[in-house]
Amino acid sequence: MSEYILYHNPRCSKSRAALALLEENDINPEIVYYLEKPPTPEELRSLLNKLGLGIRDILRTGEKDYDELDLSDETLSDEIVFDLVCQHPKLIERPIFIHGDKAVIGRPPENVLTLLEN
């Protein structure tokens, strides 16, 4: 496994910008195309642990799936939300950059550089 990992969507301008910033700093992360190979619930839990966030903190609330799956319903258990997010990975905020046991969401893209400063 690479020292650097980027959960990347090449169709997303923020994701492309984050990757460009990393490459400008001589970082060539392992690319995870999470839309093609969605994370398992266990992988998602590990990712959230590195981010220091909960599952609802990384949801893209503007996505059509968010409304269709009624994810604004606070009575849905985290287990249900985890399963739905793994089935519909475009709900995951992007990009996510991982370095060691830490991760950040690259919004704005410059956030990825914060893990390089440590």
Report on the architecture of this protein:
The chain is an alpha+beta fold and 118 residues long. The chain has a single domain (4-115), classed as Glutaredoxin. The protein is 32% helix and 13% strand. It has 4 helices and 4 strands, in the order E-H-E-H-H-H-E-E. The protein has helices spanning 13-24, 41-51, 64-68, 78-87; strands at 4-7, 30-32, 96-99, 102-105. Strands 2-1-3-4 form a 4-stranded mixed sheet, covered by helices on one side.
Shape: globular
Query: From the 3D coordinates, which CATH architecture would you assign?
Result: 3-Layer(aba) Sandwich
Q: Helix fraction?
A: 25-40%
Mean of residue pLDDT values: 95
What's the number of structural domains? 1
How many H/I helices? 4
Structural class: alpha+beta
CATH structural fold name: Glutaredoxin
Q: Any idea what the radius of gyration is?
A: 14 Å
In the predicted model, the low-confidence regions spanning at least 5 consecutive residues are none
Name of the CATH first level = Alpha Beta
Please provide the count of β strands.
4
Strand content: 5-15%
Give me the strand/helix succession: EHEHHHEE
Distance between the termini: 20 Å
